[in-house]
Design a protein that fits this description.
about 60 residues; single chain; about 70% helix; flat; about 0% strand
């Protein structure tokens, strides 16, 4: 399995799990997740963007 496929599976599994638990996956997160899948950002970048979006750390 290539890296892009692995990233896609991880992201979609996580989003599905969140939705099963009653969470909502925003379009902004989906956009960031796609950047991660495409290799434009790494795991730390995805986490950072999400934390900044919700005010958990400064940009």
């Amino acid at each position: 399995m290539d890296e892009r496929t692995r990233r896609s599976l991880v992201v979609h599994d996580g989003m599905h799990s969140a939705e099963l638990e009653g969470g909502r996956v925003t379009d902004a997160y989906r956009h960031d997740a796609q950047d991660y899948i495409d290799g434009l950002i790494d795991e730390d970048g995805l986490i950072h963007r999400t934390r900044v979006r919700y005010g958990l750390e400064t940009a």
